[in-house]
UniProtKB/TrEMBL annotation:
Protein name: Ig-like domain-containing protein
GO cellular component term of the entry, any: external side of plasma membrane
Gene Ontology biological process: regulation of cytokine production; regulation of leukocyte cell-cell adhesion; regulation of T cell activation; T cell receptor signaling pathway
Main location: membrane
GO MF term (any one): signaling receptor binding
Location of the protein in the cell: Membrane
Listed transmembrane segments: none
Signal peptide: 1-20
Keywords: Disulfide bond, Glycoprotein, Immunoglobulin domain, Membrane, Signal
Occurrences of domain Ig-like (ranges): 23-120
Length: 260
């Protein structure tokens, strides 16, 4: 949604809300009526909630003496575009702490004005590919997944007939990056296990389904059975001679089937 705001003959074009992704750049848009003479141009970006300075431009150059340390070496203006009325701020890379409201303030010979833009953090959005662990004893099979991401997800376990399953879930607010660490498991009593694990990222409308291939059984088999995963499977085969892993296709999706 775009907003047009007019202050003292300066026209602003802005996005009300922008969703950013962890580790990638975000551009906060701010445009004004330009003046070819930049000698009087002052551009200041601040956090709206605490007024900390994010980036400043005056005397025809960046002036970052008052810049918040949290944004050191992460912000820039499009200097060559200032004469065209573009005061947009680039933040690179973006982290969870960058979420919030930003105030863009510009003054030049034609007037002064300000506008607000909200930055939503979708991190990482982009949850990491879930890591699979399988624990087997004489009566049950426990399938466990671990993943990291942002924001806190909705977790869904589905059975063979798409029915909701009861599961165990642990969520930790991990590290200084602000990522959530998710560990979730499902314990099955029957000898054949066909399940789907899905962490849902509502900010980016991302559903990362696991135990189901995004393209084909053969590609999924290559991805899952590579690296540390194949070592774990080999361990299970050597310890449980009657444990069988197979890939099965159903309605265009690919499932991992565990049979004891």
């Amino acid at each position: 949604k775009r907003w047009l705001i007019l202050f003292h003959n300066i026209l602003w074009l802005m996005w009300k809300c922008l969703v950013a992704i962890r580790g990638r750049p975000a551009v906060l848009g701010c445009e004004f009526t330009p003046d070819s003479d930049l000698s009087s141009l002052v551009v200041t970006w601040q956090r709206q909630e605490d007024s900390q300075v994010i980036h400043s431009f005056y005397y025809q150059q960046d002036n970052l003496d008052r810049q918040s340390p949290e944004y050191h070496n992460r912000t820039s203006l499009y200097i060559s575009e200032l004469g065209k009325g573009n005061a947009s701020l680039r933040i690179n890379p973006v982290g969870p702490k960058d979420a919030g409201w930003y105030l863009c303030q510009v003054s030049n010979a034609k007037g002064t004005g300000k506008a607000l833009i909200e930055l939503d953090y979708g991190g990482v959005s982009l949850y990491s590919e879930p890591r699979l662990n399988i624990h087997v004893n004489s009566t049950t099979v426990t399938v466990q997944f671990e993943t990291e991401g942002f924001p806190k997800p909705e977790v869904i376990w589905l059975g063979e007939n798409n029915q909701n399953l009861s599961y165990h879930l642990e969520i930790y607010n991990q590290t200084e990056d602000g990522l959530y660490y998710i560990k979730s498991s499902y314990e099955a009593q029957k000898p054949v296990v066909i399940v789907t694990f899905t962490p849902k990222n509502h900010l980016l409308n991302q559903n990362l389904q696991t135990l189901m291939a995004s393209e084909s059984c053969s590609r999924w088999s290559t991805e899952v059975l590579s690296g540390h995963a194949i070592y774990f499977f080999s361990f299970l085969f050597s310890r449980y001679n009657d444990l069988i892993f197979s890939l099965s296709r159903h309605n265009g999706s690919c499932f991992l089937v565990i049979t004891t």
